[in-house]
Design a protein that fits this description.
The protein folds into four domains: about 100 residues, Killer Toxin P4, Chain A (2-Layer Sandwich); about 90 residues, Gnk2 domain, C-X8-C-X2-C motif (Killer Toxin P4, Chain A), CATH 3.30.430; about 110 residues, Phosphorylase Kinase, domain 1; about 150 residues, no CATH class. The strands form four sheets. A five-stranded antiparallel sheet has the order 1-4-5-3-2, with helices on one face. Strands 6-9-10-8-7 form a five-stranded antiparallel sheet. The protein has 13 helices and 19 strands. It has about 575 residues and is an alpha+beta fold. One of its GO terms (molecular function) is ATP binding.
């Protein structure tokens, strides 16, 4: 999470004192409409020394950002110790301000569980949980799911009315995630957490409906489950979702008169207003100074980070990775974890979830974006975009599936069966030149087309230099500067080739290769049609040596007892 500013300690103390004083003026009964009444708190069975208050506060800050934006949030805190997972969900009928107030109250109460490794709390308007494993897809948990029955018993027909109303809200909530119903004098609300799909939502609400109907004939019942909530009552306890709240429906005082409540509201408004003004002024000043620092340092933020097509929405990547499901994790390093995701277009990507601390977030993130985005190479994974508007920074790369690296870099190896005739002609020419050289008639290898265009000495030097370059041992091959001198200096003494580029095929072990005969009729006919000095077709054979690592082709003539190794050349 980005650290926008460092508030001085004296300012924090002053704000806390003012807000604490104002909270003492608010009557307890006035909080019921915001849904912050505590319903159930459960802490884990064992303590985790590394589940410190600082980790709890850090992940709650991350979730707080999402709750304020959309009414729910799910986050993972990765560090040197065990990870921490958190989930918060408000009832959809709450206004944003009431939702955030409910979350703040739940966060305060849930802190009692620290240093326990897990904890969960249900308030009337929201749910908050943290644990040391990923639980956001859990729908039911028999060890923690509870039912609460309140209010006295009512008429005999309550069971029928409750069953009908609960059935209605359950069916609708499975499709929409949330539903309310107030027919036949029974009011009901059902909601699944936003991280569940329809299948898991249906499982949770089905079990919750069974549990809540055990409360009949009580006038009110609640099912507080791991992945959903279900409640019915004889009194309307939820807000209208679509229309705005009616001012006439708000509670008014009758006997005491408006004087006391007017004074309380006025004092509270003044205190909160002054606090917000001071805090906003400090934030503006600090942000302006931060911008000046970034401007002086040249600026780390890339201009293309906000370009359409490069910037991804955080919620889109969150849904693409199934809320960063551990099942989609491809790997994890010291500063980030990588998840496999599928975009709405069907494209598969790799999402890198950075875990920088607050001090190094900006510099580390933009340094990586600037570095990788400037590299365009077929052997480097391409950076498709990033997300910097959410509670954490994300990088989106193209997805490269696991496999052999040589297949990604080079593809399939070509063999002689699909080589062009020119390759075969080169092989045969090399065999013939060596044969003529050994017979002291190297100029017989000159193409008739070149007759009269170069001297015998030039042709002999060129062919002999070529044979030197084809020697099997690297140390015997001349350098390019030496080749240039051979071809340009008339008085240069060209050495004789010492090692023929041929392999004694009969000396190979039968365990090391498998030999199969390969016909080259097309290559021979093509080569024979263009030259008149080559060996007869019947005197040449080409064979293939296949091993587990590479292919080698051997060409030769029986009468000269020489064979040519056409495998990959030995590197210089």
């Amino acid at each position: 999470m980005v650290q926008f500013f460092n508030v001085p300690e004296n300012l924090i103390n002053w704000l806390c004192l003012m807000l604490l004083s104002s909270s003492m003026l608010v009557p307890r009964a006035g909080c019921s409409g915001t849904g912050i009444r505590e319903t159930g708190l459960t802490c884990g069975d064992y303590e985790n020394p590394e589940s410190s208050a600082s980790n709890f506060m850090a992940i709650m800050d991350m979730v707080s950002f999402q709750v304020k934006e959309r009414g729910w949030g799910a986050q993972t805190l990765l560090g040197s110790g065990p990870p921490m997972y958190a989930l918060a969900q408000c009832r959809r009928d709450l206004r944003p301000a009431d939702c955030y107030m409910c979350f703040s109250q739940a966060r305060l109460v849930l802190s009692r569980c620290v240093p326990k490794a897990a904890g969960r709390i249900y308030l009337d308007g929201c749910f908050l949980r943290y644990d040391d494993y990923s639980f956001i897809r859990e729908s039911v948990d028999p060890t923690h799911d509870i039912g609460i029955c309140v209010s006295p018993t009512v008429g005999n027909d309550t069971a029928r009315r409750v069953a009908a109303t609960v059935s209605n809200v359950t069916e609708e909530a499975v499709e929409r995630g949330f539903a309310v119903d107030g027919g036949d004098g029974i009011f009901a609300l059902a909601q699944c957490w936003s991280t569940l799909n329809k299948g898991r939502c249906k499982i949770c609400l089905t079990e919750a409906a069974k549990k809540v109907q055990e409360c009949v004939p009580n006038g009110e019942g609640k099912s507080l489950f791991t992945g959903c909530i279900l409640r019915y009552s004889r009194h309307k306890f939820y807000n209208d979702v679509s229309p705005p709240p009616n001012i006439n429906d708000s509670p008014t005082s009758t006997e005491e008169g408006p004087g006391v409540w007017t004074i309380v509201a006025f004092v509270l408004s003044v205190i909160v207003g002054i606090s917000l003004i001071v805090l906003a002024a400090f934030m503006c000043c600090h942000r302006m100074s931060s911008r000046r620092k970034v401007s002086d340092s040249g600026g780390l933020a890339p201009d293309f980070a906000f370009v359409a097509g490069f910037s991804f929405r955080y919620d889109l990547l969150e849904n693409a990775t199934d809320h960063f499901d551990p099942a989609n994790k491809l790997g994890q390093g010291g500063a980030a974890s990588v998840f496999k995701g599928t975009l709405p277009t069907g494209k598969t990507v790799a999402v890198k979830r950075l875990s920088f601390n607050k001090q190094q977030w900006t510099e580390g993130f933009f340094n990586e974006v600037n570095l990788i985005s400037g590299i365009q190479h077929k052997n480097v994974v391409k950076l498709l975009g990033c997300s910097i508007e959410g509670p954490e920074s994300l990088l989106v790369y193209e997805f490269v599936p696991n496999g052999s690296l040589d297949q990604v870099l080079f593809g399939e190896l070509s063999t002689l069966s699909n080589s062009s005739p020119s390759s075969s002609m080169f092989i045969l020419s090399l065999v013939q030149v060596w044969k003529n050289y050994k017979a002291n008639n190297i100029t017989a290898s000159v193409d008739p087309v070149l007759q009269g265009k170069l001297t015998v000495e030039e042709a002999s030097n060129t062919l002999q230099a070529g044979l030197l370059c084809t020697q099997s041992t690297v140390t015997l091959r001349p350098s390019m500067s030496e080749v240039v001198q051979m071809l340009t200096k008339k008085d240069y003494a060209i050495p004789s080739p010492k090692q023929q580029p041929f392999l004694n095929f009969s000396g190979l072990s039968q365990n090391d290769r498998t030999v199969s005969s390969i016909g080259l009729a097309s290559a021979r006919s093509s080569f024979h049609s263009t030259t008149s000095s080559l060996i007869p077709n019947d005197d040449l054979s080409v064979q293939r040596n296949s091993s587990s690592r590479s292919d080698k082709f051997i060409a030769g003539s029986p009468d000269s007892n020489i064979q040519l190794n056409i495998g990959a050349p030995e590197p210089r």
